[in-house]
Amino acid sequence: MAENSPLIRLAGTDPSDTRPRVPFAPDVLDFLADLSKELRGNPDARHMGDVQTFAFWCRRANLDRLRAAHDDERRRLGRGLAFHVAPANVPINFAFSLAFGMLAGCANIVRVPSVPHAVVDLVAGAVDRVLARHPALAESNTLVRYDAASVHSANFSARADARVLWGGDGTISALRALAAPPRCVDVAFADRTSLCVMNAPALLALDPDSLDHLAHAFYNDTFLMDQNACSSPHLVYWLGQGSEEAAARFWDALGRKAAADYPQAPVQAVDKYTDMLEAVLDGEPITRARSYSGAVSVLEWSGLPADPGACRGRFGLFRQIRADSLEPLVPHLDGRFQTLTAFGIDLGELADFVTSHRLAGIDRVVPVGSALDMGLVWDGYDLIAQLSRVVSVAPGQP
Amino acid sequence: MAELQDLLALAPFALSEADKQPLFAAALGQLTRHHRDHCADYARILDVLGFDADVPHAVEDVPFLPARLFKLRRLQSVAEDQIHKVLTSSGTSGQAPSRIVLDAATASLQSKILTRIVGDFIGKARLPMLIVDGPGTVKNRNAFSARAAGILGFSIFGRNPTYALNDDMELDWDNLDRFLAAHGDGPVLMFGFTFMVWQCFVQALQKMGRRLNLDQAVLIHGGGWKKLADQAVDDAAFKAGLAQVGGISRVHNYYGMVEQTGSIFMQCEAGNLHCPVFSDIVIRDAHLTPLPDGQRGLVQLVSLLPKSYPGHVLLSEDEGTIIGTDDCPCGRPGKTFTIHGRAAMAEIRGCSDTYGGK
């Protein structure tokens, strides 16, 4: 480890005050609402969709709604000092991670990715300015940037009461190996995969505008993050009559959308095409590979392969299967599966499917278009509950 | 395989584009059916893509394989006992090597066609040959490199091969003096990799302030411009440097892929890369749709040579532009093009951090 590698402080100060707050503390809500305004008023952020999403999420009205939704009528306090390692390739997530820690009542050290990124720089600058207007929070929250190989992660881990770790499985393992105090809890957002289920008759009933709207929603779930987000689907599971025609219509609409809007680099096209041929040569039960407008590639499965969870696409490569029920999926939905997006099927019924089959996988059931929506419940964790502790009193004594 | 045999028997620039294309498409169809019938993996790919090789297709409609696939998979259209050698050649350090399965017929065809193409540019005489590399490059068979393959492949065009560099890649003056004393006043053949020629020959001589008498030399070089592009050295600057240090005025760049050894593309006297009758080029956009002449895109190369492995239609990761057809000032018919180098990497989004790397 490089002992002397520099630490760049982008906002706040090293937390000198790590006394816990109650979740949704008024000064935290003030700060986040202030940050929301600062970001929404920044003309440079106007074209950054992910910044707008974050700013919209932490606006006052939504924070009030979140507070009401998370009130479990227990006395809670934050765990203390939370150390966050944010993911390199979803730049805005460092801001969500900071907000989760603050809302739970923690002091926070957030390591932003070491590779400079316009979104990170813009939001970190806003956090710095807004913290200056909230001195009490500036003493307990900071954003830092440093080389991953440096000693700082070990030092921060040694002080942490909670760690929020984003990254690939290798990253998470390396970070968890760093020593932390005995009572430190880890929230690890590791590699996950996701799938989508579509109701064919419902799709066939869509008028052209609604079909385009659905394709747009699916596009947002996948292409916005190059299909690399944990919650982006890789498999589309068609149910019901007319699935062949429904699938053709859907992919055609998605192909038009992606061809028009996805800035596909030539290298990505080669990657996608190579992945597709490798899947064929790997012996997946593929009956047909189709390309839609050169932007969407779809591999049609005749049945489920041995390990559907391992079959992932990039840049718009999807598997699809047409079936009568979800039952054949049951043995395959292990802990790698995170999000089930759905169209034309009752979300509650799908959630019941997860619980009644006692599935190890699937933490989220959301409509197509909401796969990337971050929230206080993520990856199966209730983050307020994870990052706070309960102060219990004897039964019957409120 | 009438068209295929006919084309392979021709001189490299015997046909105009209009005369070539119908023959070429038919020959490509024959070769595609051959691979379908002899390589189960290839047949499966055609099947899944819904491609019927039994009906005629235009060249750009025949499915292409990414050249990269040969680094990931061993694909062959020949029985195990017919394998002459497996060429494992890694172009770039750190990458998995391509595995190209050759039978005797394909290996022999590769050198026959290479001879014919190069001969069209430098003539048939075997000239004294000066190799701008160290003798160790071809001796180290464990690390059989694209450089070694190039040196060995082009050595058939010369005689009395002499290495201009030692194994520390410094000019070997004993060798150079001896070579120049024996052959310096006559025509000689020089061969080397583009960046080696620039860095270890042109720049080394420039630093020493030395000038060699190689007025009658013809230089063939290849291997890519990436390292020179980083130093902002283009074809013109490269040629100017060679003229300055050695009076070398006949310079031919060549382009090709190790996955399609033999069917190379030579740069003519007018500076254009030429497509011979044995091969074709298609330029594709970021959606892999063919582009018209004059537009820049991904280079797809089609070669009639690969028979023992299904590498006849390959998509590279280089970008190029087709310059013209049947209109090169040098007089050779067919397509001419230029190569811009490798397509740029894209910034990829997604959840996975690169904690280990950064």
Secondary structure layout:
The complex is a heterodimer of chains A (398) and B (358).
Chain A: E1 8-12, H1 26-40, H2 49-57, H3 60-70, E2 76-78, E3 81-85, H4 93-104, E4 107-112, H5 118-132, H6 135-138, E5 141-145, H7 152-159, E6 162-166, H8 169-176, E7 185-189, E8 193-199, H9 200-204, H10 208-222, E9 233-239, H11 243-261, H12 266-281, E10 286-292, E11 296-301, E12 317-323, E13 337-343, H13 347-356, E14 364-367, E15 377-378, E16 381-382, H14 383-386, E17 388-390
Parallel strand pairs in A: 3-4, 3-6, 4-5, 6-7, 8-9, 8-13, 9-12, 11-12, 13-14
Antiparallel strand pairs in A: 1-5, 2-17, 10-11, 15-16
Helix pairs in contact in A: 1-2, 1-5, 10-11
Chain B: H1 2-8, H2 17-38, H3 40-48, E1 65-66, H4 69-72, E2 83-89, E3 98-103, H5 104-122, E4 127-132, H6 136-139, H7 146-155, E5 158-163, H8 173-183, E6 188-193, H9 194-208, E7 217-222, H10 226-230, H11 235-246, E8 250-255, E9 265-266, E10 273-274, E11 279-284, E12 296-303, E13 313-325, E14 335-342
Parallel strand pairs in B: 1-13, 4-5, 4-6, 6-7, 7-8
Antiparallel strand pairs in B: 2-3, 8-9, 10-14, 11-12, 12-13, 13-14
Give a description of the structure:
- The complex is a heterodimer of chains A (about 400) and B (about 350).
- Chain A is α/β, with parallel strands linked by helices.
- Chain A is built from 14 helices and 17 strands.
- In chain A, the strands form four sheets. Chain A has a seven-stranded mixed sheet with strand order 10-11-12-9-8-13-14, with helices on both faces. Chain A has a six-stranded mixed sheet with strand order 1-5-4-3-6-7, with helices on both faces.
- Chain A is globular and about 60 Å long.
- With about 350 residues, chain B is an alpha/beta fold.
- Chain B has one domain: Rossmann fold (3-Layer(aba) Sandwich), CATH 3.40.50.12780.
- Chain B contains eleven helices and 14 strands.
- The relative contact order of chain B is 0.15.
- Chains A and B meet through helix 8, helix 12 and strand 10 of A and helix 3, strand 1 and strand 13 of B.
